[in-house]
Design a protein that fits this description.
The complex is a heterotrimer of chains A (469), B (303) and C (213). Chain B is built from 11 helices and no strands. With 303 residues, chain B is an all-alpha fold. Chain C starts with a helix and ends in a 14-residue tail after the last helix.
Chain lengths: 469, 303, 213
Amino acid sequence: MIYTYYLVVAIFIGLILLLRSKNLTHSAVYIFNIFQIGFVIYLFQNLNGAKVDYFNYDSISVLFACVLSVLSFISAVHYQVYEIHQDELLRTVRIHNAVYIGFNAALMGVYLSSRYGMLWAFVEATTLTGATLIYHDRKAVVLEAVWKYIYACSISITLAFVGILFLSVAAQEIHLNELTFTLLKQNALLMNPIWLKAAFVFILVGFSVKMGAIPMFNVDIDAKDVAPSPISGLFSSVVLNAGFLGIFRFYQAFSNTSIDTWMNHVLLIAGISTLFFAAAYLMRIKNCKRMYAYSSMEHAGLVLIALSLGKVGMLAAFLHLTYNAILKSGIFFQVGQMIRINGGNKTEIRGYFYQNPIGGLILLFGSIGIMAMPPSGLFISELMIFKELMLQKHWIITVLILFALIVIFYVLLRAIFKMLFYPPNPNNFSNIKGKPVEYVLQIFLLGVSIYFGIFQNQYLFDLIQAAIN
Amino acid sequence: MLSFILILICAIVFPGLIAVTKAKFSGRRGPSLWQPWYDILRLLKKGSIFSTTTSIIFQVAPVINILVLIMAALFIPFTNKYAGFIHFEGDFLLFIYLLALGKFFIIISALDVGSGFEGMGANREALFSMLIEPAFFMIMAALVLLTGHSSFAEMFTTFNLDNSSSILFVVLSCYILLQFSLIESSRLPIDDPKTHLELTMIHEVMVLDNSGFDMALVGIGNALKFSIFGGIIANVVLILWKLPLWSEVLIFIAIELIFAITVGILESFRARLKMIYNSQFVLTISGIAVVMFLMILLLENHL
Amino acid sequence: MDSLFILLFAVSILYFSISVNIKRYIMLLGFQGVLLFLIALIGLDELSYFNIGFIAVETLVFKGILIPVYLLNIAKRNKITNINNFKNHRKMKGFYLILATISVFIITIILGNLLKNDFIKIKYLSTAITAVIMGLIFIVINKTITIHIISFIVIENGVFLMALAVGNEMPFLINTAILLDLFVSVLVLGIFFNKLTYHFQDDSSDALSSLKD
């Protein structure tokens, strides 16, 4: 079935490149997304039952694939509204939509692959398709950001490949010929820890560019700044998941060996420094898209900290990732609408609530949710993280994280109040209205997040626990 | 003793041959082959003039230089047949430090003169000598690794081409020794012996104030130094074959002459490097020598 | 025999440190491509002929010929000749870079010998790690975009050499390394670098500093 999926991807890409009308290309993307949702339903029914050698339908793979399919559909709708407003050329829209399908296919490959080499190759494909997606407006600033993104991503992915080579050296010592995740987990105790430690550091550094964490976060922030907002939303959610999966597969395979404590320490250091850098950078931001991009960095840091805490931490990490994906992409879609209504101005938005009450409310609730206040789902996952931190008696670390979170809280709240409730900026006044379909989809995303925050769904918990154990 | 005699014989021909080669490649007729020796003989008949600012060091340095060079030439063996006149364990260290002693005395005699130009030349000469030293040590260290002995004579006796690292060593060490000799004798591309601009001279400016008999000694010393390095290169090349004695003597002399002609050709087709790039160039040669040594170390599994 | 080629690879990294002329950089890249071709032919003997042939052709054609030719065209089009203006000569970067290369090489060999693995050959691994680290240092020290590209290709050559070290058991890894190379050369160089040099006529990376907080 997975090969059917890729065949359909190829057909759709070819089809879109030949179509002659913008609306037809959008319709093709919608049809593809519906097919993708159908594929995910098929995956849900066939959990852990892959019959092919290179892919496996693990629970977390399926969860991430589900998130991808839903968000991809919503993002495609927002993109159509975006490009209708900008009145783009047919060529731009065609290339963008074709590469968009390729982007989805690459991400699906990352989630579903069962070998390390394949995961790496699909992440590389994500870089290339993602860079084409970012390069939508033809401005010098955008070209600069795209160049930096593709360059730094390529170098980081090369470093991740070095890590995979070290892992393969450790595997060759015990005559293991493939880097399949299940085989790695079975033979974890036999491998030389020095090679594993070296591999882990390189893989962490390499995949950190996708997550937007230390040490390679800068290019991710720049990319989310200049990309069209629907694409920024996708970058903050599904690409972060892809980067995390690269690190998680390694951690999961070797979590019962002698390097476990060491890996936890490294992840803790990476997470805390990410959090601090995000807090430090956030204090001077005037650009709303960059602000939310740094907020994604903060959540990436929290996820890394969660991963270092053991089994409960892993559960918290996945919940955090899922809820973050839903909320952050919703916020970015709304930010896109906000920028459109304000005439393309990203830095001096004031009094948005008076221009567009529904949009303002969505932004307000979304931002309150992203700051992990109840009733958003992020509150649950952060509560789990803090509970586990205190159960493991990391007092100083808890205090440090709380301090960073307070700073971020303050900055975001101040920015929100400035953007929403200050007297409006007379330069930005325009008569553009938001489309109803946008509001519906964004309220749907907010609603899903609130639902998961209030009624903790046992099915989701069981799904994740099944993959972790 | 045989190699000492051969080195002395080749030293007679060396400077003239380099000058004639350069001239022929420039399209000139060039001086006679014995012109440098006519100059040296003329200088030997003159007396030296010593400045009042100098001390005993200035008067002693050229003599020490030439004595050191003669003594260093006694260490060179003749391929694998005859050892040098002096040989013991670790004699290559004494060899290189003798050369360094001679250079040290020339440097301090240049500083002794008290002129700014000599000081500048001494400064640069000291830097380049320091940077090129690791190259020779690495070549010697590789030889010690490959043969297990630490005396010149025994190294060349027991060196054989049974493994790939030996071929690697021979090929690379010839190149490094060529550059090393160029740098130690202060020829192009480090220093142009024909330039008369004091700000760009290195070796010539150090001996600017030497006159008469001392100048002759310096000239003989330069020829000897070249010949010594040519002798080492000839030894390294002659390891490749085992030939009867008379043919080895002929090939030894031939390699020395070819070395002289090669230096002449290299000098004709090269320009002097910018002074800032000199140290970089010298360090690159040392770097290549270090890399070669480490590679041989890896191949022999000696770590 | 492959030790000679690996030694020449390390020496080419040394020459990278002291180069000033763009043409020299590009010729060194081509030289490295040819060396990797020879190393692949000699070092990999347990793979199928088709696999070895594919790897050999890819290194020779892509790394040895196509990329240098393409970079030469770009350099000619943008009239880039020297990477520094003459004020930077006083910093003597070449001197310190050579010291850095040699120290990195020595350290990697010492560390590699402490690991005592029978399956990976130390000479491959240490040269490859030297190439990767020196590539990263070149990127940090230089400020022109063309040198960034060239240093990235040096990093890739290092990673490819590392993949060759383990490639006898897992040919899939070498194929993946080639995939990276192809993707990067075709897409990064071909498309985005073209656009970049077309828009930003100035080669220095100071032109790329308009994105700030």
